[in-house]
Amino acid sequence: MIEIRDLTKAYGERRAVDGLSFRVEPGRVTGFLGPNGAGKSTTLRMVLGLDRPTSGTALVDGRPYAGLDRPLCRVGALLDAQAVHPGRTAAGHLRWIAASHGLPARRVAEALALVGLAEVADRRIRSFSLGMRQRLGIAAALLGDPAALLLDEPANGLDAEGIRWIRSLLRRLADEGRAVLVSSHLMAEMALTADHLVVIGRGRLLADTSTADFLAHHGRRRVRVRAVDPAALAALLATAHPDAVPRPDGSYDVPDADPARLGALAAEHRVVLVELSVAHDSLEETFMRMTADAVEYRAVAA
Ligand SMILES: Nc1ncnc2c1ncn2[C@@H]1O[C@H](COP(=O)(O)OP(=O)(O)OP(=O)(O)O)[C@@H](O)[C@H]1O
Predict the structure, then answer these.
(1) Could you say which of 80, 160, 167, 206 is the most buried, measured as most Cβ atoms within 10 Å of its Cβ?
(2) CB 47 within 8 A of CB 2
(3) Coiled-coil intervals in this record (predicted)?
């Protein structure tokens, strides 16, 4: 299990990570979200002992990374898939890592098979596409069969089939009881993959909740209406729901409205509806609004 407590990293005056606390629990995929520069990579680097916290702690199984015996068997990480020696073969790269931890040679073949690279095990990495390098990075993270995984943008460079593959792999790893933390900018993908979300903005925690609760509590509901006579609907909404948003097809989105009441209102005014449906904000819309709010909050705080 990974536990981050009051973690802060300052670069001069600027706090890249600012009093951050959360836990990555076993048995679920935790999505780690935040706009560019929010502090995700800095946080992951501190968990992995690559950056020293200004204050606070980042613990793996109750210890700082530097205090772990055979760390690859505790936590596997993919930070930068390009950070590999291009002259090595895929198997050679993994054999070198395995040897550093006294892992059996068979783990190399197993990890390559797991990520679909068995056939190119003896090819040099310089000929690998970005997607193949991502897979190799994931194989390295899995080499020590760790109980926790930290993956920074693992879907980067993968095609549609690759993205589906990573989704099912993350699911399987969590179902096996591992703690999986995955950062991504692909919101639609995260909505499908993550059970839990940790959202940060400017180094601060904005949300730490299940994906379902995040959408239920922070996402907005809107009612979409369309009428036979768009002008009549426009006139009705102008007085009853001035916040209604017109759409190119003549329909309107009415935020936070009650569909039954809206239907009754239309009937009362003899506006014949051809559509009345409820829609919820997507994860992307909810995320954008939440992180935009964070910007305003920071501006006030500054
Ligand atoms: N070595 C450093 N020296 C100074 N500032 C740094 C350093 N590393 C990161 N930062 C700053 O810290 C902030 C957080 O960066 P970080 O890379 O952790 O964000 P991120 O959430 O991973 O962003 P992205 O989504 O773009 O990868 C940024 O403003 C960045 O410029």
Answers:
(1) 206
(2) yes
(3) none
Tell me how far the alpha carbon of residue 39 lies from the centroid of ligand 1, in angstroms. Answer: 6
What lines the ligand 1 site, CB under 6 Å?
A: 11, 16, 34, 36-42
**Cα 95 to middle of ligand 1, angstroms:** 32
For residue 298, pLDDT beyond 80: no
- The first and second tokens of residue 156, run together, are 């980067």
Ligand 1: distance of its center to the CA of 23 in Å? 21
Mutate to test the pocket of ligand 1, among 9, 42, 202 (most ligand atoms within 8 A of CB): 42
* CA nearest neighbour of 17 among 204, 182, 150, 292: 204
pLDDT given at position 293: 62
Angle at 30 between CA 82 and CA 70, to 5 degrees: 60
Atom index in ligand 1 nearest the CA of residue 45 equals 18
User: 2 pairs with which residues across the strands?
Assistant: 24, 60
Tens digit of pLDDT for each residue in 11-51? Answer: 999 999 999 999 999 999 999 999 888 999 999 999 999 99
Q: What is the pLDDT of residues 282-294, one digit of tens each?
A: 898 888 888 886 6
